[in-house]
Design brief:
10 helices, two-stranded antiparallel sheet, two-stranded antiparallel ribbon, about 300 residues, TSUP/Inactive_protease-like, membrane
């Protein structure tokens, strides 16, 4: 069953797009990420122009985050104070990121930049998470009774001023640290069409030292409002938001997100981190293959076979 996407200017299979939305929603509920790190590359793989995929995917990130946040909020897994600090930085970063997106689009480099950034970011984060998960697994296997080590190290940044006490996360750290982290996530959200959870979740665990259960809900809180800001600015500035595509992704995501949240409640934090790292590396490998593959036309870097 085909449907025409007016902004993307092509026809796509409805059930394919619904399936992509459901997969992204599942990831949002399981890991506290928007799901865009998987859905945006997959949209590009099936033939959606990268600029349209990025802008339209932000809508689906909003819907996924709402659905997942409701579940996490009822379970008391949201650090509201931490979320507000992250959000302040995220709003500034996403506004600046949309401006940068517009500039790259104007000079004709946005498609290439999106692909390269995805490969670099996903490969780095996936490898770091996989290494840490395997190291924790083998350490516990050798000595199951050993006390659990800290997930983060106190770096120089923990000595920054303006310290706040985050009671839910049991932390006393500088507000500048989550503020800067939120700013970075906002830029990534605008340029890559993601909630930024694939960066935010590991950073909150390993850099800030937050408990995994609280991280998922707090991440969804920040992602929700940042993605909403990106959607509005992309539509107003670049006109690259395809409402039909976004609606189909949202419908699929609303179904997948609650299922993912229930799965996350039954899995240990170590297993969640390992699974997320494998998914991130798989997407990075496919993107790298796309970049290195010889184009079907030597005079066009953007042509690819559209899956129907």
């Amino acid at each position: 069953m085909e449907i025409y996407l007016p902004i993307a200017e092509l026809s796509m299979n409805v059930f394919l797009l619904l399936g992509l939305g459901a997969a992204a929603g599942l990831l949002s509920g399981m890991f506290g990420v928007g799901g865009g790190f998987l859905a945006t590359p997959l949209l590009i793989f099936v033939g959606i122009p990268p600029a349209v995929a990025v802008a339209s995917q932000a809508n689906q990130v909003v819907a996924n985050s709402i659905s997942s946040l409701q579940v996490q909020w009822r379970r008391g897994n949201v650090d509201l104070r931490m979320g507000l600090v992250l959000l302040a930085g995220g709003m500034l970063g996403s506004s600046g990121g949309v401006w940068l997106f517009t500039y790259l689009k104007r000079i004709g480099q946005i498609d290439f930049v999106i692909a390269v950034l995805y490969v670099v970011m996903l490969s780095t984060i996936g490898l770091l998470m996989l290494f840490e998960s395997l190291r924790s697994y083998f350490r516990r296997r050798r000595n199951p009774e050993a006390p659990r080590g800290k997930l983060h190290t106190h770096y120089m940044v923990h000595r920054l001023p303006l310290k706040l006490r985050f009671y839910k996360s049991k932390l006393y750290i500088s507000a500048l640290l989550p503020l800067g982290l939120g700013f970075l996530i906002g830029i990534l959200s605008a340029i890559l069409g993601v909630g930024g959870g694939f960066v935010l979740v590991p950073a909150m665990i390993y850099l800030l030292g937050m408990p995994t259960a609280v991280v998922i809900g707090t991440s969804n809180f920040q992602i929700l409002f940042v993605a909403a800001n990106v959607t509005f600015l992309q539509a107003a500035t670049n006109g690259t938001v395809d409402v039909v595509l976004a609606l189909l992704l949202i419908l699929g995501g609303v179904v997948g997100a609650p299922i993912g949240a229930r799965i996350a409640a039954k899995l240990p934090g170590l297993a969640l981190r390992a699974l997320m790292s494998i998914l991130i590396l798989a997407v990075a490998a496919e993107l790298l293959t796309e970049l290195l593959r010889t184009p079907s036309s030597l005079y066009s870097l953007g042509s690819r076979e559209v899956l129907r």
